[in-house]
Amino acid sequence: MKTFLLSIYGVFCFVLSTIAIQSDSCGQKISGAGWKWHVQLLHIRQAPAQAFQCSGTLLNQLFVTTAAHCLYDLNGDPLDKSQLEILLADGENRSIIRTFQPEPFDVERLSNDFALLLLDRAVVFNELVAPICLPEPYTVLPQIVHTPALDGKTLPVNSGVTCLHDAQTLFGMMYADAICLGQFEKTHTYHRNAGGGLYVDHNSSWHLVGIVMYATGPSRVHIAYIGGVLLERHLNWTRRVMMHYTESIPLSETNCKTYVGDANLPFEEYHPIVNIVDTDENISARTICHGTLVSPRYVLTTGRCALRAKRIFIHYGGEGNLDWFRVKDFTSSGRLSLIALDHDARKQSGVLTCLYWRTTPTQFNYTTRIAHTDSFVRLEGIQVQYRVDEPLKVQYYCSRYLYHGHFTSPGDALAVKEAGESFYRVVGILDDTLGCEPFDYFYERPKTVEAINVELYLPWIEDTVWGCS
């Protein structure tokens, strides 16, 4: 019965999320109207000239999807998104303010060649512009797949083994979630015709099932073979990202308001107060890392810390006022992990922490608040540089009075107090200690390291911790 209820809950969440992110009619089949969701990704090489970079597909008023390698140049270096623009079917342009990838694109192995682009302002739907539909999970892939790259023609869908073999022949490597159409011939020319969508006809509307990675053929206008990547594995992630940036108030902020109302938030005395140990024994337990309690049941820390974690103890403040928890399991995304506790932490203890978020964040520099339980050192002098879609740059000084012992641990949080708020928000996580060499102390030299930008992971955190609550 419990399994049945959880299944119904999952379907209910899926329906709600689909309605929320694609409320307008999507994938409408209108004869002669063309592909209303097909867009072009342009590279502004020298204004006002623009060069075609890739194609893309409009998912809703704010999001376009394309191949991740379209965000890189031919040398494999990332492009500045300020130099990219989206051209809609009606001739309107949009700038790109954010890019999202479920997993980092591997330039060498062509893995995870899928990206979402957040536009600077909403698209106005009309007779020329409309969104594609996202498919339901586990949609059976038919033998007929359409794509604008073929200009109305179709090619048969090949087996997965054939796709892997062809990619090995063409690139000398194999990539995951492959889909391919048509007949590959070694004599054909490779065409950089990527990023466009692969569509199927389902329930009288068009649904997006894949992204074109490359095409081959005797010429650009005579495409005989298309290689691409299936989206099924990333569908839930795609919906969560779209929901997070389409909702006026995301789940993390809704729960933050609850935590603020329940108790004073941390960083007033010391932080972190969530200690991660690598043994099941309470006696002589050694803290290997720290974490941040983002809900009564989940601790946010680094992936390396989660791999070694056996137990968690949380110090609520005051003599002997602490609880022990076992690690139930953990889930990871990139360099971050969420550890699930075997029982709830105290909700009104003041240790539940808010996360930094902005729908359209802007770059800034700030002085962070960080402290380390073991040495009880506040380091208000640490400067953090925040840049959208990038790791945090952390600059600190090796002061002489900090010479003895480490003053940070992996998993320590970087916090910032927003204007008008009385509490601190977590904006970053340290993946290692802030180290200093002897001469760094003597000369008090500035040092710069990278930290994990938590804001990049908010959709994943919300999906794991709160679901569609």
TrEMBL record:
Pfam families xref list: Trypsin
PROSITE patterns linked: TRYPSIN_DOM (PS50240)
UniProt entry keywords in alphabetical sequence: Signal
First and last residue of the signal peptide: 1-20
Matching InterPro entries: CLIP_Serine_Protease, Peptidase_S1_PA, Peptidase_S1_PA_chymotrypsin, Trypsin_dom
Domain of life assignment: Eukaryota
Alphabetical list of SUPFAM superfamilies matching this protein: Trypsin-like serine proteases
Record-annotated Peptidase S1 domain positions: 21-243
Family: Belongs to the peptidase S1 family. CLIP subfamily.
Protein name per Swiss-Prot or TrEMBL: Peptidase S1 domain-containing protein
Source lineage: Eukaryota, Metazoa, Ecdysozoa, Arthropoda, Hexapoda
